[in-house]
Amino acid sequence: MLALQQMYANVGVVNPSYHDFAGLSVKKKTAVGFGAMDPSNDRIIAVICLDHHWVAYMLDKRTQVCYTFDPLQMKANLATVKSSVQNVIEPQVGMQNKNTYKEIDWCKQRDNSSWGVWCLVVLELLLSESPWADSLYKVQPYLRMR
């Protein structure tokens, strides 16, 4: 994630461990740990772990769209991600109730272990504004090493 921040301009990375805390104030303090809420950041990216399963999101402040992604396409996980962004991230960037949420459904995990790889792939595709191609499934072993 920090590599993505270096590759793309004005990208903030949320500290992934924020979601694990119970208190909202601690979540907010932890989320800003890597400078994600800096006003110069146009896009904010994050991965969070939900019960040993990784999910991702990207909040685009320019377009006021938050893209949410669960490699298993589980509605409950996507609802948790949306709630997390609404309660922890939006208030810190002054965007409460201003965002549209779009679920990424063009990539789906096909095994039991690649959720983290697909989260990073989807985030990079969103940041680079590149289209999804099913041929990416064939290069998963390479992507894992990257």
UniProtKB/TrEMBL annotation:
This is Ubiquitin-like protease family profile domain-containing protein.
